Structures are given as structure tokens and as C-alpha cells.
Amino acid sequence: MRNQSILRKSVTIGLSVAAMTVGGVAMAAPTKGTVSVLNWWTSGSEAKSMNVLQQMMADKGYKMVNDAVSGGGGSNARTVLKSRIQSNNLPGAAQIKGPEIQQWCTTGLTMNIDKVAKQQHWSKILPGPVAKGMQCDGHYVAVPFNLHRINWLWINKSVMEKAGAKMPTDWDSLVAALEKLKKAGVTPIAGGGDTWQVATEFDAIAIATGGADFYRKAFVDLDQDALSSDTMAKTFKRLRTIQQYEDPNGQGLSWNHDTGLVVQGKAGMQIMGDWAKGEITNADATPGKQIACIAFPGEHSGFVYNADSFEMFKSSHSDKNAQYAFARTALSPKFQRKFNMAKGSIPVREDVSLKGFDSCAQQSKKDFTAAEKNNALVPSFSQDMAENGAVKGAIFDVIAKFYNDKSMTPEAAAKAMASQAKQAKMMSQM
Ligand code: BGC
Questions:
Q1: Cα(43) to centroid of ligand 1, in Å?
Q2: With the CA atoms of 171, 176, 180 and 182 taken in that order, what torsion angle do they form, in degrees rounded to the nearest 10?
Q3: Were both Cys, which of 206, 212, 219, 380 would link to 376 (CB 3.0–4.6 Å)?
Q4: What does the alpha-carbon distance between residue 342 and residue 355 come to, in Å, rounded to a whole number?
């Protein structure tokens, strides 16, 4: 698969905002401190969302250095983080999610932000699993920004109408709609760009096919029976079906390029987390109107969640007060609304109103609350929320092998997933 090039950007604003006038001459006021923030938000909507934070920080007199490294899913950003550690150039905050937050704590390099968490009552305003995930040994070391849902299907309504296809409600009607789109000469599904994108598709198919209990057993508990089960084989089989409706030359295309194809009517659908919604809005289309959002259909419903978060590091290149301000601003109600409207996610603060958010965000919130009650809320394996990097890598390898090797059977893929995940877990515990 073609590798996405690493694009590093360093964007700073703030001087103009922090400017003051002395004797009629505009002077740059000293900033109250600087924080460098490593992340992988480089698509149009992602950069816009990050600008909200940079601007809000600047308004308060802090300089936020936006160290953005391109590459959906963040594998390039992770590589850069490791090399920055080696060269003693740690960022003040880095985008890190799921169990990796706890792994980083073992380095002794993370920073305690209990002070801010206490002031803002994080343990009360955050959903339980998210609050827990931000802590190591009972201390907050990371700040969450949002809640993304993974198991979505984005559909261009007018393309569907022109093709005479009906909105899917289950797996069979989805395949029927894809067939109609194909006959009409449009790419039925935009996708298949790289392993991370294919794994994101697999994620959505897995919950719809097996449900939350199966998903949890397989991807959180790494239960061998669930991983090698008929249900997992069925998930692989469905991925093969989806693949047949994707552009065979789509490799190397980014997720946001694919979202663009759906918005422009060059493709009918995309299976992607709701960061795709950020791109839809950014392209002046209305999610829920021109582009429909439905939970990926199958026999089961559920909510596969992904909370973007930033882990704080003891960094000689960032000021502690700016790091605290970063965490505090990220969880302010104002930022939660502005950022999440642009990003496509919903606020992670449970007490923030969704008034003015689009209908897909409203649906997401409703489904999240229902899933929380029904034990149907699961952390996304494809977005690093369920397992450490080594295990996720092993699972990704099997998905990539299956996708690229059409002679591999779904049953063989399920068996390989069980054995490789087990091995990776053992190795990572050694
Ligand atoms: C992140 C999203 C991001 C997406 C694509 C995901 O892993 O959680 O915030 O928009 O990758 O870059």
C-alpha cells in the first residue's frame, strides 16, 4: 500500500491577539507561556477544529504550537512522538488514545493534571469509561476532547435516488443498494485506501454482525473463541463483499478524499467515523440532509466509540501554566461546542447542550446514551481504544492480508486473527 508522506506543519498564531498598544505603537505582549501540541489533524475540518483551540488559547495569552503530522489514524504522528522523545524534544501534549495512555505513564514522562480535573470536576462531567481512561494510578494525565462514533455509513441521497436505490436498513438491503449504484455507474463505496481505513470498515461491520458482547469479547478480552468464531468469519466475508463495491484503484487515497467523493456525488457511500462529518460540513453540505448518516446496518446495533485525547508530558519546551490552560480550555463548554461542531464529533462533557448541532450529532448523542444504558457501548479497536499498539498491529496485519489476498478464506482469516492477537499480547507482556 502506498505510504502517505509525512507532512509536518508548525502553525502558530497569537502574537496579533496578544498585541497591545504602548504610546500608540503596537507591541507584542509577552505570552503567558507556550505549549507544543503533537497531533494528526491535518484535513481541512481537522485543522479548522484545532484552530479553534489555538485561537482560544491565544485569546487568553498563551501560544499553542500546532505540531500536526499528517496520516489518518495517527501512525505517522506516533513515529514522530517516539523520535521526539529520543531527541529530548517532548511535546507538552500529544494525541494519544486508549490503553496507550497508561502505557506512556510507565515511562515516568507524563504530567499530572489533577489540579485542572479537580477545578472542572472531570469525574462528574465525563462519561465513566472516558474519565477512567484519562488516568494512571488514580491521577489524571490526559484530557479528552470529544466522542466520535465509528460505526456510521454516510450516503449521498441524490446519488441513491438517481440510481433507484433504497436507503439500507439491514445487510441485504445494503447489498441491494450497492448493486443498484454499481449498475448506475457510480463507485458504490469510497474506501479501501489504506489498512487503517479498511480496519475502520471492519470495525463497523463487526458490531453490526456480532453485536456488543461479541465485539467486547473479541477485541477487548481477546477471547480466542470469539476471535476465531463463525461470527468473525462472517465479518470477514462481509468485508470481502464491501471490497467488491470499492474502487480497485482506490489504494493510497486518504479518508477525506473519499468523503469528498461522496459529497461530490462521485461515490454513493462511505463507511467511516464521524470525522467524515467534519469534512461534509466543511464542504458546505449538511449532514443528515444531502448526506444521510445511518448506523452501519446489520443484525445488531451498538455504539463503537473513540474519544480523542491528549496526554500531557513533562516537557522542557512547554510551560506548565500553558499546559494547564490547554487542558482547561479543551474542556470548557465554549470549546466543546465550537470544536465538536467543526470536528464532526459530539462533546465529551455530558453537561454541554447540543443545541445547534446537526441531526447526525443529535442521533449520535441519543445512541450513545442508549448504548451506555444497554451495555452496548464498546471502545473502537481500529482507533486504538481497545488494545495496545502491538495487538492492534497484529489485528490490522490480518485484515490487510485478507483484503490484499483474495485467496484467503474468511475462516482462515478469523483463525489467523485469533492466533496473531494472542501472540502479540504475549510478546507485549514480556
Ligand atoms: C481520530 C480522529 C481523526 C481521524 C482521521 C482518528 O483516529 O480519532 O479524530 O479525525 O483519525 O485523522
A1: 10
A2: 60
A3: 212
A4: 14
